[in-house]
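User: Please run a holo structure prediction.
Assistant: Happy to. Please share the sequence and the ligand.
User: Here you go; the ligand is magnesium ion.
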Amino acid sequence: MERTFTMIKPDGVRKSLIGEVVRRYENAGLKIIGLKLMRLSREKAEELYSIHKGKPFYGELVDFIISGPVVPMVVEGDNAVNRVREIMGATNPKEAAPGTIRGDFAEEISENIVHGADSTESANREIPVFFSEVELVER
Ligand code: IDP
Ligand code: MG
């Protein structure tokens, strides 16, 4: 059993895709064990995206992720990290396959609906940025 961190970005919330994203994870047999709706502080946004600091798109990325409410989630299941990444689709929506979240609902790389941890190491770093252990539910 593996845990991963995933988050609906402000564009996904704005487009009323909260239910759609959750449904796709649940339909794949993944379990939501933590979920909330919140607005990120700049500090939390910079912590989430610390590995991108210095890249040309970093400032735009942080400004965007704090531009509206987001839905951070912890998802559990066999191979959860890779399966969530597959359901999300490629980072650039222009390269994302139809049937993936980004392929179906996003147009621009800067607004691609969802975030997902890219490894178990990233998941283990990102989960505590958003959830304390008591907020994660055994089920
Ligand atoms: P990921 O979200 O698929 O893991 P990363 O490479 O980790 O992709 O980049 C984090 C986020 O930064 C992406 O989801 C995307 O929104 C944004 N991003 C990545 N590359 C670019 C770019 O070249 N221009 C603008 N935004 C970018
Ligand atoms: Mg990433």
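The chain has one domain: 2-135.
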